[in-house]
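Cross-check.
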Amino acid sequence: MNRVLKIFHRLIPLIGLAMVFFAAGFLAVTAFAATNIDSVYPNYFAWSDVVGWLDFYGTDSVYVSESEVDGYARFNPIGEAYSYLSFNCDTGPTGSDCSVPYGVTNDASGNLSGWAWSDVLGWVSFDCHNPETGGTSPDYSCAQSLYQVSIDDQGDFNGWAWNDVAGWISFNCNQTETGNLCGTADYRVSTIWSSGAVNGILESGTFDTERPNGASFNYIVWKGESNGGRVTFQFATSNCGNGATNDPTCDTDIGWGGSKTSGDGAYLGPNGTTNETDVYVTSGPSLPVEVKNQEIHRDKRYFRYKVYIETDPSRSATPIVEDIIVNWSP
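Predicted model, tokenized:
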């Protein structure tokens, strides 16, 4: 007779979806009143030797999505009023318009291209491959200087932009071309957006099959909504409720997971390892996946599981896990 344990979970989504509010501006320009730039100093500064610091947080408008950069940064050359660097003609400061369309785009992998605009500096190129930079296809001006601004998987901007007045604009104090200069001036532009999916991990508590001689574990299945993401598992068993390896004394190698890489109490995937890439993969909710490594898990009384939750690639939606079902035989 098979036994089924239904474990209820309502896992909180990993993503806080930013609500973006709009306000009409001069000449029907739309301005963002939200930002996903890191507010922790100094994670919102770029640097130019000519105009100094460019503040990406002070306007509360710079917003990075998988397709573009919106809003505008500001800079303040010594002795002058604030000037602005606009990343999109639709979301620039009051007075912007799109009579000459421009924008900085994101290829969803963090590689930025296109143009920003400043009424003081003029055009700022974010990629040497921009056709308007004066070179020839397909590299355009990259033969003179290979540059591009990008965002890594931690949300940090890297690389250089170019402007005929300000010259090079650096987005990080640790650049390949200059080495790590963060000890002299610690700065970078960072955003909560990053390329690719976001991952989260849930470890269960300890469950007791109440079978003194242990059980044979058959399958795991989850209920809920995938929302374009992915839910995967690792599985751990022991004859000791504390995860130890020497029942019935249960005082050796106590604990679940941690540094354990095999045997009782270790979170294992179908290939029998604890690597985070070795996981039970389901095609979606309500589809059972067979528990492997029976030579390890069979005839064990206690079990735990680890759940890996991954958002969709655009990070706009998160799986919701409502039930986790573990099936075993006495």
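Residues 35-180 form one domain. DSSP finds one helix and 25 strands in the chain. Passed to J.P. for a second look.
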